[in-house]
Design a protein that fits this description.
Layout lengths: L1 E5 L1 H14 L5 E5 L5 E3 L2 E3 L1 H11 L16 H8 L10 H15 L4 H12 L4 E4 L6 E6 L2 E4 H7 L6 E7 L8 H7 L6 E4 L4 H9 L4 H6 L5 E4 L2 E2 L2 E2 L4 H7 L6 H8 L5 E5 L6 H6 L3 E5 L6 H16 L7
């Protein structure tokens, strides 16, 4: 089994690439839920939805969120009534949030609800939330503490980021399938997708026991850098790194993950950093990481799987 940690568009693309090569029982995609929030009385799970829609072939590739071919009658009517419209919910996307909220209110866990939604959308591979407990990313900014979606969507990441904390993480339990997979002696690899290390991956690692479980897992741990040539392919990762005092680079991503991962996949544009990354005790794998087409997603996944199959866990 491959366990893939993911959040956001980059993570969803690599999960899709892996899903093209692996049977449903061979992939477990664990998704960040620190971005989740309640909006208009509905439970919204942006990263879960992005991955589900991507695997179902429904993702809106132009916006990076929501479904393709959306209509906006609900938002237009809501605006006419003076409602909040800063977080855009298309009509098709809205149905997902309504159904999720209904199922949660009926007493189902987020894992159970996600499985039901995946089944309805035709997603055959396993997609699970990082926890069935509430964990919420809060961004400490120059304007004070902001809930993640208010920082990311409403304020468009404009305030200067000063730090992050993950409300509820200290008391959260990891999703049971995820924790079991990390301990499985037959585990093939753990893949940290090219998701934002601070906003998408750190909330997962903040759950008690997860970092240690990954460190002691019986399989290679490989991360994919979301930074290429000093820039983020998608999202505010480079801006966040600068504001936290780090150079936006593949080398800095390697420093961030050093001690947790065995290897870091970097783009050919960053091949010059390979030696410095190796000096950190992190093996560099240099290949194309920009997934601008479906073929690119599949090729990156193929390169990654070939690498992990030929390389045992290097850390004790």
């Amino acid at each position: 089994m491959i366990v893939a940690l993911a959040g956001g568009v980059g993570g969803a693309k690599l999960v899709d690439g892996l899903a093209r090569l692996l049977a449903p029982g061979e992939l477990l995609a664990v998704i960040n839920t620190g971005d989740d929030f309640e909006h208009l009385g509905l439970q919204v799970c942006p990263d879960l939805d992005t991955v589900m829609y991507t695997l179902a072939g429904l993702a809106n590739t132009e916006t990076g969120w929501g479904q393709a071919g959306e209509s906006w009658h609900f938002m237009q009517a809501l605006e006419g009534l003076g409602g909040e419209t800063w977080f855009r919910l298309g009509d098709r996307d809205l149905a997902t949030h309504v159904r999720r909220t209904q199922l949660l209110a009926d007493g189902r866990t987020l894992s159970q609800v996600t499985r039901l939604l995946c089944d309805a959308l035709g997603v055959r591979h396993r997609v699970v939330p990082m926890s069935d407990d509430s964990v919420r990313t809060v961004v400490d900014t120059s304007e004070g503490a902001l809930p993640f979606q208010h920082y990311f969507v409403q304020r468009r990441c404009e305030p200067v980021l000063k730090g992050l904390h993950f409300g509820g993480a200290a008391n959260a339990q990891p999703q049971s399938q995820w924790l079991g997979a990390l301990r499985d002696p037959g585990l093939r690899a753990i893949v940290i997708c090219p998701s934002n290390p601070y906003l998408s991956i750190e909330p997962m690692l903040a759950i008690p026991g997860i970092r240690e479980a990954i460190q002691h897992a019986p399989a290679p741990v490989v991360a994919v850098s979301p930074i290429v040539g000093g820039q983020a392919i998608k999202g505010p990762a480079a801006k966040i790194m600068r504001e936290l005092g780090y150079e936006p680079s593949a080398l800095e991503v390697a420093r961030h993950y050093a001690g947790l991962v065995d290897a870091l996949v970097i783009d050919t544009a960053d091949a010059g950093a390979a030696q410095a990354i190796a000096a950190l005790g992190v093996h560099p794998l240099v290949t194309g990481t920009v997934m601008s087409t479906d073929a690119h997603r599949e090729q990156l996944a193929r390169d990654l799987l070939a690498f992990v199959d030929g390389r045992p866990r290097s850390r004790p």
